From TrEMBL, chains A, B, C, D:
This is Malonyl-CoA decarboxylase. Residues 80-163 form the Malonyl-CoA decarboxylase N-terminal domain. Pfam families: MCD, MCD_N. Residues 166-412 form the Malonyl-CoA decarboxylase C-terminal domain. It comes from Bosea minatitlanensis. InterPro entries: Malonyl_CoA_deC, Malonyl_CoA_deC_C, Malonyl_CoA_deC_C_sf, MCD_N, MCD_N_sf.
Amino acid sequence: MDMAFLGELLTNVADRGRALIGMERFLGKGARPIDRLCEDLLSGKGEASGMALAQAVLEAWQRLDKPGRLAFFTVLMERFGPDAERLDAAVERYRETGDAAAVAALHLASEPRRQELFRRLNLAPEGTHVLVQMREALFEAMEAEPALKAVDADFRHLFGSWFNRGFLVLRRIDWRTPANVLEKIIRYEAVHEIQGWDDLRRRLEPPDRRCFAFFHPQLVDEPLIFVEVALTTAIPRSIGELLEPEREALPAQQATTAVFYSISNCQEGLRGISFGNFLIKQVAEDLKRELPGLDTFVTLSPLPGFARWLAAVAADPGALNLSNEERAELARPAGETISLEEAARAARDKLLGQMAAQYLLRARSASGRVVDPVARFHLGNGARLERINVGGNLSARGLRESHGVMVNYRYDLGDIETNHEAFATRNTVVASSQVRKLLRPVAN
Amino acid sequence: MDMAFLGELLTNVADRGRALIGMERFLGKGARPIDRLCEDLLSGKGEASGMALAQAVLEAWQRLDKPGRLAFFTVLMERFGPDAERLDAAVERYRETGDAAAVAALHLASEPRRQELFRRLNLAPEGTHVLVQMREALFEAMEAEPALKAVDADFRHLFGSWFNRGFLVLRRIDWRTPANVLEKIIRYEAVHEIQGWDDLRRRLEPPDRRCFAFFHPQLVDEPLIFVEVALTTAIPRSIGELLEPEREALPAQQATTAVFYSISNCQEGLRGISFGNFLIKQVAEDLKRELPGLDTFVTLSPLPGFARWLAAVAADPGALNLSNEERAELARPAGETISLEEAARAARDKLLGQMAAQYLLRARSASGRVVDPVARFHLGNGARLERINVGGNLSARGLRESHGVMVNYRYDLGDIETNHEAFATRNTVVASSQVRKLLRPVAN
Amino acid sequence: MDMAFLGELLTNVADRGRALIGMERFLGKGARPIDRLCEDLLSGKGEASGMALAQAVLEAWQRLDKPGRLAFFTVLMERFGPDAERLDAAVERYRETGDAAAVAALHLASEPRRQELFRRLNLAPEGTHVLVQMREALFEAMEAEPALKAVDADFRHLFGSWFNRGFLVLRRIDWRTPANVLEKIIRYEAVHEIQGWDDLRRRLEPPDRRCFAFFHPQLVDEPLIFVEVALTTAIPRSIGELLEPEREALPAQQATTAVFYSISNCQEGLRGISFGNFLIKQVAEDLKRELPGLDTFVTLSPLPGFARWLAAVAADPGALNLSNEERAELARPAGETISLEEAARAARDKLLGQMAAQYLLRARSASGRVVDPVARFHLGNGARLERINVGGNLSARGLRESHGVMVNYRYDLGDIETNHEAFATRNTVVASSQVRKLLRPVAN
Amino acid sequence: MDMAFLGELLTNVADRGRALIGMERFLGKGARPIDRLCEDLLSGKGEASGMALAQAVLEAWQRLDKPGRLAFFTVLMERFGPDAERLDAAVERYRETGDAAAVAALHLASEPRRQELFRRLNLAPEGTHVLVQMREALFEAMEAEPALKAVDADFRHLFGSWFNRGFLVLRRIDWRTPANVLEKIIRYEAVHEIQGWDDLRRRLEPPDRRCFAFFHPQLVDEPLIFVEVALTTAIPRSIGELLEPEREALPAQQATTAVFYSISNCQEGLRGISFGNFLIKQVAEDLKRELPGLDTFVTLSPLPGFARWLAAVAADPGALNLSNEERAELARPAGETISLEEAARAARDKLLGQMAAQYLLRARSASGRVVDPVARFHLGNGARLERINVGGNLSARGLRESHGVMVNYRYDLGDIETNHEAFATRNTVVASSQVRKLLRPVAN
């Protein structure tokens, strides 16, 4: 393996934060406005002094306030699109000849100039990092000015190419990981909040816990997405049993089941660039290699849209053949039901399970999509719906969003492609028989 | 510094050469032809099983023979261009509205499908590497089928984005560098051939020698471009004094001058993606930081087109006010002149110097460009023409290509931008007075 | 630099925690008692199967309870000393011949067998680590059985050789350091307690803070000793100004003074093996190299024995020409004086300063040594006593131990040797004139 | 794994070659002779300025010529032994009391002062390296002055402790290893000479070749010992089949047999410090882990003493019941026999095989040891004698030293301890039945 050489190789990256010699020549002149700097960077000057100019632009940008950034993005939209004359000529030529050369010319002529601008801004030290921040700021600006989504299309195109899975690096996160990375894991965990360093350690250090993240070589301290994994001997029914602080750890060699219980994206500026798909499959493969005893790969996932959907059902007298009593029961706030007696609870739980199955298997949005976003993610990756766990998450948030219900999606490496196709082409939710059985018979 | 974390981070890259679990599902089916695999990869299947499909395509491609590759590229050209219907619709819409959204849609619709194909092929382990090889093979195919340059345009676009300077890593090459990298330095040195490991060591190990290369994190064992540097106390006049095996090494701290005496590109598949520009400036900055005593940064460069140009001049009776004797002298093969007597040699040398100045300062191609490619490179980078060294390279090749003349181009970090602009915008060759004085007075 | 190769080289160390093939051959037999295993390890068996036997001993040792460990150490003392017969013969021969060979033989014969035992135990994975723990346990056992110090002499001899400065590695500790190392910094800080991760970050991350530790290649996760440094523009008078959470950080380039404000040993099992001496000098050199603007290297140190000494002085009517009022003042608990009015406080502060100077410059123990252990450490390293800071540490501990007084010791790299000699050979405390002036005139 | 942190940790080692600030204070004074510097280093001065003093001594030593070094070693012998008075007192006290404290004091008093001197010399940058060179020079001096072996005893004692297996690192050597390490592999290969870089590559790069070396963290560029391994499907009979340049490589996964065909020590200065024992076993374990298909671990070894022994046998009329014809045959120079006809060759080969069995199983030196040093090494490690291969090495050296015979020793991890004990305690050579059968019946 050549990792040692690579290690040294990469030390230079870290170094690039240094002052560029001659930098002051650009900034010192003062007052060259940022749009002028951008034009320079795209001109021949950019060829001679690209790094320094790019750094000047990015530093100027970082000093802009919110209105300044909105103005900057507007300039990008209005003045850094394609060259109109050239584009018209290319369109004309395409209509005349329609040949391959004309197509190629048309593609080039229709490329907004800001794409090349972004590529040149990447010359600056930390350029990639600042460009990702820039897109994050763009999202904010887009709320005020939706037309800016034309600018975002270029960011998205570029980041899709730069953050191609082929350039990402999967890395285990553990208690030996640098603290500056770990604090980002604490900060970005979006599913089951991490309560400080002791809680973090409980998720990383025990032998039956794993955490993996994707990194990009240019963003060394910044995980892009990470997944937390518990190794168990059975598919878990609740998040509580996984996160219990006093539980006894399992020797990894004895585990049969890997549970992906939390997946979090870290970079708002990379929204829409999909990594999670690759992450789960890669981690599953790596774990299988390390621990051949593993034969089951599942998630323990929330149903973030369930409570909302259920409220609509409960409010609709004709829905799903529900009796009035059932609708009343479903309309009760989740918190209120904690103190139910056993029989009542069992009845309620049964009903919730039926509704969850209905929600996941049958519910469709106006555009015909499966309603639940987490379900769409895992089913789209080729997982199947394995089990519904009523009472899986009794935290305030779990009750509020999903009446405490959680779901296991199962990744069976041999079925992923078939499952994916069923879902992608026929909109079919592949589910285990135990889930399908929960469906109430449809009225006549 | 975070290099340690990075080091570990990158170990996973090296690992990616492993067999992908489930790979055989694709290859085992046998006989799915490569174009079918490519279509699958672009389809929803590619989303579910991208890595395995990409690997299947690349392995199938590597097994193709030369006609097979030509056929493959032809398929890429003919069937993986843009979707014609969609493109026509986008053109239509653009002509109707002309708004930003229409422009964006036009750009997307005109993007050949092979661009996304290439991005997905990059999912495979070693994908980047094989794609670079693929472009190399494409060059060969283009000789038979020039229309394939439409395919090359897409490679070039993608590689320009992926091999952006912001993603490259500068690394010193020395005698502690892994042997598998060093052997590539031996193989790729294009200017002054390296005669095996002992010669290599003479260029790397002495305290007054340096070598630097750019690497891409995905191509760890493959330098992209490298430069060899000699540290001296004066601007050198000949390559012989630099490469003399028995010379005494200079303590680096005593050096005042860094001489870039050889720059070599390593990856034919990255032809046209420019790195040299950045390399020289970055190395100059790094050396200045390490050795503050350095105040002069120059090249010692060949004039690869000089002999050819001179032959044309010598054959043209009216050219440059040359006398018949002079033209006869210039028509003599370089090798023949070795044994000239001193006075004759001095006269010849003077004449050669004048001609070289003429060649570099005044000669222009039909399209108006400076004739010499090496001159264009350095002048375009913002260097100035510092000195002409007659007798600088008396090797067979040096005599044959340039009558033994070599040139120093000087990189003065403070003047780079000005020099570049003079050259880029006014086609002016910035030269020292000593070079300009060599010019023969123009006839009347 | 060869660090990359080294990095890979060392990966194997980390690996050595793996199960040894064939291990069970030894442990499986069960019940071979630990002393028998030790004898085997020293015998020819140890040559054939040293690693496995060493691991068996160390694992058995780790399972021992406290009485078991006492028994084990007693066995080491009684049965693993030198071979008595061989020693007597060597003594006899020495008395007869007295030649170099006899001396060498005597040295060998007098070496306790446990020294070789310890060396062979080091063959086990993690051997060094467990041996350090073993010595820590020995300290506890020595409280019950002082004669065990004969065993400690062998540990100390061996560790002195193994943890020779030449084998240690100085490493900066910062916010990018692995969490498992950082938590040890929190745990081991012995001077100014670190209040959790946020406090730690305040000591590591700001640009005017540094922390360095010595490591041994065999104890990668275990700092041996570390020093915390503040970069300032003046010699500080109080720990409060350094640790103030809200203070504004200084750009490192502007610093003139490096303050070593805390030095902590981490490994109880390495007690008496001195590293602090080298650490301070090495860090001073490294900082000077990184930040040439630094010209002052000082500590901000406690006087841990001051309050005790002062209590004795205050209780002794004839001591130091003190008036009764002064003695009464000095007898007051430090905490009580917080609310003094300004004039009274000034008088008290002046008196405390005089007493501190007396304590450091003149006070000697029964054996004639300087009383304060921290003073002995820094003066023995060649520092000089620079300034006494009354009110330098108003924490409960600071008041209790030293009435709030702190001291700056100054490391002037040019005077270290002279200062050291004055202290080591003449017991002279080198001090600045401002400190010497604080001394009260001696009675008559 | 914590290797990343370690990697960074170790970068500081590489750095230690830097100039020590203040160094010139010692060397500048000029003319302080080396023995005086040594005394200073052992004195209190050494505590204050140990690193600088140690460096001064080592630099002075490196400038000494051969007579100077002899003089230096003589001083070490005569003036840096134990303190005579203190030793006599310790002997006296031991004879009086004989208690543990007296023993400990005796051991300390009998330790030559040069041991502490060596430990302090190790404070210098590169100290360990120079000390190893120093011992190498000592061997040369010992030829002139055998009494210096008293000095060597101290080197050996110290190196035995410092180069303890627990501190060594096993590392694979391959074609990605830094060139400066590889050139040492070429230089130090002692068994089957490596003919330059191409030959080296043939031994490192094919998938069925491995090379491993031990390193010490302080000697990063210096392998201590290395072993070359061939992966095969059968126990090889000749070195020729292994080193054949045109042979086809075997996929490593198909190998059943690992052949250790060359073991070379690299550091003459570490002579007598044994690593080979650990190296073979460790490599065997690591290979078994990587390639579970391996079930046979053997050497292909020379018999360096065979020809000499055989000559003596051939010259002794009564030896081994040999007929005169046989003795005549054995007396023939090995080279002469190349052209024998088949039957004669077969007869000769049979005789050589019998003699080799006799040599290995029965021949004993005057002191009763097995004669062949390579046999002693492997048998002492617990290997068994597996097969005798007549014609295994037909190189000039192989014919000259051992009439072309080679031997396989087999390492069966389950039998190592038993084999070792048989050899170590009963002097029994454990051999396969096929070897034992070669023995000629002893004349009653």
